[in-house]
Amino acid sequence: MNDTHATLSGTTKLLHIIIALGMISLLAVGIIMSEFEIFALYDLHKSFGAIIFVLALVRVLWRVKKGWPSAVGAMNKAQHTIAKAIHWILIISTVLYPLSGLMMSIGGGHGLSLFGLELITETLDAAGETVALNGAVGGLGHEIHGLITYFVIAAIVLHIVGALKHHLIDKDETITRMFSLK
Ligand code: HEM
Ligand code: HEM
Q: How many separate domains does the chain show?
């Protein structure tokens, strides 16, 4: 099914809700686990993050194939530009976050496991210590993963405030079109 002015396809709605909930949860878990050094959460964070990466790539392909949904509510040019810019920032962040996480983990020599199933082995030296596979890639991933956090949180907050404004003040179909079960 295609996205139309009146309804959005099941693919658009399903990918939006799964990725949105995944991103919000991973942001919270990421901040908490690194702030309080809860290492037991790292594998879960990485595993769910890797799944979000695959879903985010599917969504990018979906958008490339179908384009963006047309705006349903009445917006002036500035509001339209801001909403569009935030959609771009958000969709890029859904790829950049997990990509930088994978760069940090794999480049740093920590490998990658999916819920305990080892997909890429950790690189260890003779003494059994982790050694970087590619320190530059690992370091860049770490920088990106940490630096974009509050920028992305701000974009998500603006996005949600904008959606609520459509619903509560403009009283248009923007939210119901995205979240309807039909
Ligand atoms: C849970 C709170 C959220 C609400 C209430 C919400 C609401 C909406 C609504 C109503 C639309 C449709 C806008 C339109 O018709 O032009 C939309 C689109 C979009 N949202 Fe969200 N959103 C939420 C969270 C997120 C999060 C966390 C992300 C990504 C990090 C995200 C990314 C997007 C993107 C990229 C679009 C453009 C359409 C698409 O590609 O699916 N949203 N959102
Ligand atoms: C998919 C979306 C993801 C989001 C939204 C996310 C978000 C976050 C956030 C907010 C932090 C805390 C950053 C800080 O305070 O410095 C964090 C830490 C971390 N993330 Fe992610 N992450 C995602 C995916 C991944 C993936 C796929 C991996 C690896 C495979 C990963 C590995 C890590 C690691 C190792 C840390 C701890 C870094 C440290 O202790 O300095 N993340 N993540």
A: 1
